[in-house]
Amino acid sequence: MNSQQHISILGSGNIGLSLAKGLVKSGICKPQQISLTRRNVAALAEYATLGYHVSDNNIRAVRKADIIVLAVLPQQLNKLLDEIRPALKPEKQLLISVISGVSCGDIRQQLDLNVQIVRAMPNTAIAIGHSMTCIATDNGTNKNINMAKSLFDTVGVTIQINEELMTSATALCACGIAFFLRSIRAASQGGTEIGFHAHDALKMAAQTAKGAADLLLQLSSHPEQEIDKVTSPSGCTIAGLNEMEHHGFSSAMIKGIRLSAEKAGDLYKKDS
Ligand SMILES: NC(=O)C1=CN([C@@H]2O[C@H](COP(=O)(O)OP(=O)(O)OC[C@H]3O[C@@H](n4cnc5c(N)ncnc54)[C@H](OP(=O)(O)O)[C@@H]3O)[C@@H](O)[C@H]2O)C=CC1
Ligand SMILES: O=C(O)[C@@H]1CCC=N1
């Protein structure tokens, strides 16, 4: 992104704001290059003081944008697309959608315009530059895919996948943040029960989770390989781990991810 380009985020809620903060934190653009919209614009007041353009006027935001990010809920999308259609300049602008369960084809059909669309599925860790973002398109040029990838590369790790896997990516990576957070919270509750103050237990659980993830990422090793190093014969780790498995630990995670993926695929069609 160069210093003349402008990005408009339509639907500045959880993920839209996380993206904006991540882009600014990475230094790829300044707040002045980002427009944030939502209907309840008063909720964006603090962002106006930081230099972002803040508005409830989607048309104006679209007119000045080189890149338009769609970040409303699936059930809010069609109304938004109908509103911005007259202001779009398909040959000059790139549309990036982070909306779950809505394909590039769905968006083009609703717009009735041959616009270039790249889908991106980040997670909320984008706000601190640690997102796992999956990117897909069905008609984006390499230039536009690279543009989208270069944006999301600044706020985490990005991979390009086939569009048909985007609902799966939603469950594993976007919803996945919540699954791992709940695991850490549960670990901290266990820690409190065995003697630690809650704030210490949470810090200890979170750092331990970070260490586990980094072992896999930095050493490129398999979880079971690392688990084998922890589980001493007749020891306390295997006792705890087996007890968790008897209660369905892995099964619960797998079944939850499957249900999330199913639901992600249904979000748009059922509710819009
Ligand atoms: N949260 C997450 O972790 C992730 C979410 N996603 C996807 O991102 C999208 C947004 O999710 P999330 O940020 O959690 O949802 P939020 O509800 O937090 O954000 C949606 C925002 O859109 C605004 N909005 C609704 N209608 C309009 C409109 N017509 N014009 C402008 N703004 C509008 C809403 O504000 P107001 O009511 O004031 O207009 C709200 O702030 C969803 O499609 C979700 O599937 C993708 C990856 C991760
Ligand atoms: O829960 C949801 O529907 C959204 C999509 C991915 C994360 N949050």
Structural class: alpha/beta
Strand order of the largest sheet: 3-2-1-4-5-6-7-8
Which molecules are bound besides the chains?
NADPH dihydro-nicotinamide-adenine-dinucleotide phosphate, (2S)-3,4-dihydro-2H-pyrrole-2-carboxylic acid
User: What composes the largest sheet?
Assistant: 8 strands, mixed
The count of helical stretches stands at 12
If you consult CATH, what is the topology of the largest domain?
Rossmann fold
The top-level CATH class of the largest domain is Alpha Beta
Q: Structurally, how many domains make up the residues?
A: 2
Pathway: Amino-acid biosynthesis; L-proline biosynthesis; L-proline from L-glutamate 5-semialdehyde: step 1/1
Protein name: Pyrroline-5-carboxylate reductase
Catalytic activity: L-proline + NAD(+) = (S)-1-pyrroline-5-carboxylate + NADH + 2 H(+); L-proline + NADP(+) = (S)-1-pyrroline-5-carboxylate + NADPH + 2 H(+)
Domain Pyrroline-5-carboxylate reductase catalytic N-terminal: 7-100
Describe the protein in words.
The mean pLDDT is 95. With 272 residues, the protein is of the alpha/beta class. It has helices at residues 14-26, 45-49, 58-63, 77-84, 104-111, 142-153, 166-174, 176-193, 198-219, 223-230, 236-246, 249-271, and strands at residues 7-10, 34-37, 53-55, 67-70, 94-97, 117-121, 131-137, 156-160. Helices cover 53% and strands 13% of the residues. Strands 3-2-1-4-5-6-7-8 form an eight-stranded mixed beta sheet, with helices on both faces. The protein has two domains: 7-166, NAD(P)-binding Rossmann-like Domain (Rossmann fold, 3-Layer(aba) Sandwich), CATH 3.40.50; 176-268, ProC C-terminal domain-like fold, CATH 1.10.3730.10. The protein has twelve helices and eight strands. The structure holds NADPH dihydro-nicotinamide-adenine-dinucleotide phosphate (NDP) and (2S)-3,4-dihydro-2H-pyrrole-2-carboxylic acid. The site of NADPH dihydro-nicotinamide-adenine-dinucleotide phosphate (NDP) has 27 residues, from helix 1 and helix 4.
